[in-house]
Specification:
The complex is a heterodimer of chains A (226) and B (867). Chain A has one domain: P-loop containing nucleotide triphosphate hydrolases (Rossmann fold), CATH 3.40.50. In chain A, 36% of the residues lie in helices and 29% in strands. In chain A, the strands form 2 sheets. In chain A, strands 6-7-8-3-9-10 form a 6-stranded mixed β-sheet, sandwiched between helices. Chain A has a 4-stranded antiparallel β-sheet with strand order 2-1-4-5, covered by helices on one side. Chain A starts with a strand and ends with a strand. In chain B, the strands form 3 sheets. In chain B, strands 13, 14, 15, 16, 17, 18, 19, 20, 21 and 22 form a 10-stranded mixed β-sheet that branches. In chain B, strand 14 and strand 15 form a beta hairpin. Chain B is elongated. Chain B has 33 helices and 22 strands. Chain B has 4 domains: 189 residues, no CATH class; 199 residues, no CATH class; 261 residues, no CATH class; 169 residues, no CATH class. The interface between A and B is large, with 41 and 39 residues.
């Protein structure tokens, strides 16, 4: 029996757009369990990314509560949310967002350094992950020397390096071809299972959905389990 | 937990990342460092050169005999020798002979056997009577080889020269010089050196002789410059000193030695303040450029900071990171700036020296004295200035939201909504700054705050102003069918308004600075020109070759004045005498006027007081007129009393008028010859104004004067027109340094613009690659970039006009008023503005060359992939 990691309780969010008040999410309720792979789908601009922002503590909901592992993330200060993210969440972005001025080994090490892992553990973890993603021989390269698929594999390694409870992936295959998408998702899910990590994905891709344990659709601000 | 993370030091990997970023953006980084470096260099160079140029003067102002505690000084004519001889004669006062030193201290011009003329400081001391040549003397001077020398002081006008001077000029015993003023010959009888390094430094240019010889060769028999009094420890000396003081005549004053030195230093204070203000302006532009550069670097790394924030780097860590980046740029810039400043100082030294020579006193330094205090000041200024300028960029970096990475539709970007808020806030700041300038403030710091408010305020209005200009351009483009290249150029600027606005603001500020300085100089020049036109109404002048009354000028020979008076073509002669006097800790010039009422009315331009009421009081009662700078600096009003030490003691004079004067910054008090003669014994005429029966006769009079004129006199016979021209030449010479500083500000501006425009264009490399991929040629891309930079230049030029006007007003009303105390009506010359706009456009267009080349060589594939 898996434990509940994330709980969304009557979560709502709106944005001011000029003089308009646009309701993005309305009274969202959901539970996500440890090691689950959950995908959010829906039309562009429907609120998938907003929901990811709320869950990761990047943004705060207008009403309701979000708990991750029992912590009311929406009630934390900005600094505490950041520190919570630093320790507990990994990110995979559509446009990779690797730090171009760090080598790929340094990119993967970045969350470990932020979390003050000792150098030996850091080096071992980086090497192990690089081996997993098949890019150990490129560890000294800078991101601009890698292809899009390779960069996203590094992004996955970076997201997992500090063994977070949760990985947030926003359109992780949005910039990749079908082969690379499939390879990346296989890698992400297998590593996440190995590390015991929960994954939440926002996606349009059917390829991604194949790897999902649960799929939820956002329609008119409401979350519907598929 | 909270405090631990608020101040936690970012992990070293983030520093490596920052370092690599600056290394990769090498050109940008170099330009940023250069911007700070040039600003700091100007500050250091001006300070060092100014300091070195005045070193010789400062040395002459310091008491050469270290333990002097007081100095006994006279009024305009020095101090009578009798004051000292009374001590020698009186048994009661004998103890004083150990502690008092009669001194002749004058600047003389000597010509050596090769005909080379130079200025020296002549010290006359009691060489013979006090037997100072024998080893330990109370002057602390070591007279070298004096025991082997035979003296004949009086007959041969023998002098000692400092050993440093002797080795510098390769002088030997028995070498002779001719004294310029009196045509006496003097010969070297020996050398001396001070007994400590300070004294040796002070005595580099000194010639020492016996008092009697000094009096003889300077035509000042019976007169001493001063009497130095050492510290008193002995009770007998103290009793004798008190007794002596009670016997002193009324025409002498006792002042602490440091007071006189300080007063002499204060002569150049106004000049220092003005130079400091200009160098700080250059630094301000430099700091503005750091702000500009840091804002760009943060804009370029928006994605990076967003990513870091997402993976758990706190706002404080990012703030600290950026702050340290700015600090390091400031530090590196300051170090380079100091090195550059020292080099630049050698160049400025000549300019500053010539200004000081013209305006204040003789100074001919040939090396830069490296003052470590200036270096420290520059470092502190560079670093603290950088930190201040980077505070806002660091804060904005820390506010970058990671959600912007995820939500690519940008609904979170609300910056545009703030344009109007910024616009009105900017107008408010501008108005406050401008209102401050209208208030009667005299504080330089408040002046700078006002200027800063105006600059920041106008910068904040830039986005909206730019938007308005772009809207106008767009509507014109609509009417002519939206030609693709131009339309693309304009639209790109619209899309990058937030970053381009910063660039335009920086360029506007830099150009406005140059407009401000240019208009200030032109306004000042026009004012002085008009003042000269009204003041120089005589046909011929016989005057020292300077506008300045900042030094004690020597008198014109009586015989020559008599000769001039007898020339039949001359209808009237006005005579002026100039004396340096010491009052309440400052030095001023006392001008004695011997003139007719009609001429007085014509020449004197009163700022306060009624001309028709003044003349009778001026010649009949104890009245004086004072110059505007003196009234301003000492807050003197009409009808105030003004005490001056005369030969008959301290007398109170009533201030009957305050008149415009641009010849001196140290202040002038003007008294009529009639009144002067009532209280002073020493009379001299330093300049003559000749009014002819018929102006046509000027050539005849000129020739007659030249027949009798002694070319050795430090005077020139000159027509009013030529004197006017010569005065303006001096003016231009004085402001040469300002022109140079203005040019340097332009260089700083250009460096900044080069960096900013390169950053903007290079950050849009992907868009240019898209254009190239769909068929735009390199020439078309270059045209787009050229159009954009041209538009940036034009908008910057336009915005710099109002900013330039406000800066001109601030420079004139606060900085100059505070520095010199002169009234200068503001004159806005179109040529200065046109020049400013042209510079803005030119620097923008030139700044586009490098990015154009870079963009046209860009690898399309990589750029499209965002690499």
């Amino acid at each position: 029996m898996k434990n509940t990691l994330i709980k969304l309780n009557h979560v709502s969010k709106h944005y001011e757009e000029g003089s308009d008040n646009r309701e993005i999410l309305t009274d969202i309720n959901a539970e996500i369990k440890t090691t689950e792979v959950v995908s959010f789908i829906g039309k562009s601009g429907i609120g998938k990314s907003t929901l990811l922002n709320l869950i990761s503590g990047i943004d705060v909901c207008d009403s309701g509560d979000i708990t991750i592992d029992g912590v009311f993330i929406n009630k934390l200060s900005d600094t505490k949310r950041t520190l919570f993210r630093r320790k507990n969440i990994g990110f995979v972005f559509q446009f990779f967002n690797l730090v171009s001025t760090l080598t790929i080994e340094e990119n993967i090490a970045l969350p470990l350094k932020l979390n003050k892992f000792d150098p030996e553990t850091t080096n071992q973890t980086v090497d192990r992950l690089l081996e997993h993603v098949g890019l150990l021989d490129r560890k000294k390269s800078f991101p601009d020397k890698l292809s899009g698929g390779e960069q996203q594999r590094i992004a996955v390694a970076r997201a997992l390096s500090h063994n977070p409870k949760l990985i947030i992936a926003d359109e992780p295959t949005g910039n990749l071809d079908t082969n690379n998408s499939s390879m990346l998702m296989g890698l992400l899910v297998s590593l996440a299972k190995e590390y015991g990590t929960t994954i939440i994905i926002a996606t349009h891709s059917d390829e991604v959905l194949k790897y999902s344990d649960r799929i939820m659709s956002i329609e008119s601000g409401i979350l519907i389990e598929k | 937990m909270k405090s631990k993370h608020i101040f936690s030091f970012p992990p070293y990997i983030l520093w490596i990342n920052a370092f690599r970023y600056y290394f990769r953006s090498f050109t940008q980084s170099i330009l940023a460092v250069l911007g700070v470096a040039v600003g700091i260099a100007v500050f250091v160079a001006v300070d060092l050169a100014n300091d070195s140029a005045k070193q010789s003067f400062r040395n002459s102002a310091v008491s050469i005999f270290g333990d002097t505690e007081f100095q006994l000084m006279g009024s305009t004519s020095g101090i009578s020798e009798n004051v000292y001889s009374d001590v020698v004669k009186s048994a009661e006062l004998q103890p004083l002979l150990n502690i008092i030193r009669p001194i002749i201290d004058k600047q003389i011009t000597l010509t050596d056997s090769n005909g080379v003329e130079d200025k020296y400081r002549l010290l006359g001391i009691n060489v013979i009577n006090e037997n100072v040549l024998s080893g330990n003397n109370k002057y602390g001077i070591d007279f070298l080889n004096s025991s082997q020398t035979s003296f004949n002081f009086f007959a041969e006008n023998q002098v000692f020269v400092s050993s440093i001077l002797a080795s510098k000029k390769q002088l030997s015993i028995a070498d002779e010089f001719l004294v310029e003023d009196t045509n006496n010959k003097i010969s070297i009888v020996g050398f001396f050196q001070g007994d400590n390094s300070l004294q040796r430094e002070l005595m580099q240019n000194v010639i020492i002789t016996d008092i009697s010889v000094a009096q003889n060769i300077t035509n000042s028999n019976g007169i001493l410059t001063r009497i130095d009094i050492s510290s008193v420890y002995d009770q007998n000396e103290k009793i004798a000193l008190d007794k002596w003081f009670s016997l002193l005549p009324s025409g002498v004053q006792l002042i602490p030695s440091y007071t006189y030195s300080e007063a002499r230093k204060s002569i150049t204070k106004s000049f220092d303040t003005n130079l400091l203000a200009l160098s700080l302006l250059a630094l301000l532009v430099g700091l503005y450029l750091i702000y500009n550069m840091m804002t760009f670097s943060i804009h370029r790394r928006k994605n990076l900071f967003g990513t870091l924030r997402a993976i758990g780097v706190t706002k404080n860590e990012i703030f600290f990171l950026v702050l340290v980046e700015g600090l390091l740029i400031g530090l590196i810039g300051a170090i380079f700036g100091i090195m550059l400043g020292i080099l630049l100082a050698y160049f400025l030294l000549g300019l500053i020296s010539s200004t000081i020579n013209y305006q204040f006193f003789s100074s001919s330094p040939n090396s830069i004295a490296l003052d470590i205090t200036i270096i420290y000041q520059a470092l502190i200024l560079g670093i603290s200035g950088s930190i201040v300028s980077v505070l806002i960029p660091a804060w904005s970096a820390s506010r970058i939201q990671p959600r912007e990475l995820i939500d690519i539709y940008g609904k979170y970007s609300t910056y545009n909504n703030y344009h109007m808020v910024l616009f009105f806030l900017g107008l408010l700041l501008c108005s406050i700054g401008y209102l401050i300038t209208l208030a009667p403030i005299t504080n330089l710091i408040i002046g700078f705050i006002a200027m800063f408010l105006v600059i920041v305020g106008l910068s904040l209005t830039v986005p909206t102003t730019t938007q308005i200009v772009l809207l106008i351009i767009s509507s014109i483009l609509e009417k002519i069918g939206r030609p693709t290249i131009v339309t693309l150029s304009v639209e790109t600027i619209k899309n990058s308004l937030n970053t381009i606005a910063i660039c335009i603001a920086a360029l506007s500020v830099s150009i406005a600075m140059t407009i401000g300085i240019g208009c200030m100089i032109q306004s000042f020049r026009a004012t002085v020109e008009e003042w000269l036109n009204q003041s120089l109404v005589a046909d011929i002048y016989i005057a020292p070759p300077t506008l300045s009354f900042g030094q004690d000028l020597k008198g014109i020979d009586d015989e020559f004045i008599k000769y001039v008076s007898d020339i039949s073509e001359i209808e009237y002669i006005s005579q002026l005498g100039s004396f340096e006097i010491f009052k309440d800790g400052y030095l001023l010039n006392l001008i004695v006027v011997d003139s007719a009422e009609k001429i007085f009315d014509e020449v004197i331009q009163l700022k306060e007081g009624e001309k028709k009421d003044i003349w009778n009081d001026f010649v009949q009662t104890d009245s004086i007129l004072i110059s505007e700078p003196l009234a301003f600096q000492k807050n003197i009003q009409i009808n105030d009393t003004f005490d001056i030490l005369t030969d008959s003691g301290l007398k109170s004079f009533t201030v009957r008028g305050i008149y415009y004067d641009y010849s001196s910054t140290s202040g002038i008090a003007m008294v009529s010859k009639q009144v002067y003669d009532n209280y002073w014994n020493n009379s001299k005429v330093t300049s003559l104004a000749l009014y002819l029966n018929d102006s046509q006769n000027s050539e005849v009079v000129f020739n007659k004067l030249l027949d009798k004129f002694d070319t050795d006199w430090d005077l020139q016979i000159i027509s009013s027109k030529k004197l006017n021209n010569a005065s303006m030449e001096i003016f231009d010479k004085t402001f040469e340094i300002t022109f140079v500083l203005r040019s340097i500000s332009l260089i700083v501006a250009f460096i900044g613009i080069l960096g900013a425009i390169s950053a903007i264009i290079l950050s849009r490399a992907r868009e240019f690659s898209i254009l190239k991929s769909i068929g735009f040629t390199n020439n078309q891309l270059r045209t787009i970039i050229g159009n954009q930079t041209f538009i940036i230049g034009v908008i910057s030029g336009l915005i710099s006009i109002p900013l330039g006007i406000i800066i001109t007003n601030l420079l004139i009303q606060i900085i100059n008023k505070q520095s010199f105390g002169w009234s200068i009506p503001m004159q806005l010359l179109p040529s200065v503005f046109v020049e400013g706009i042209m510079v803005a456009i030119l620097s923008s267009v030139l700044a586009s060359i490098y990015p154009s080349i870079k963009i046209s060589r860009n690898n399309i594939r990589k750029a499209l992939m965002g690499e």
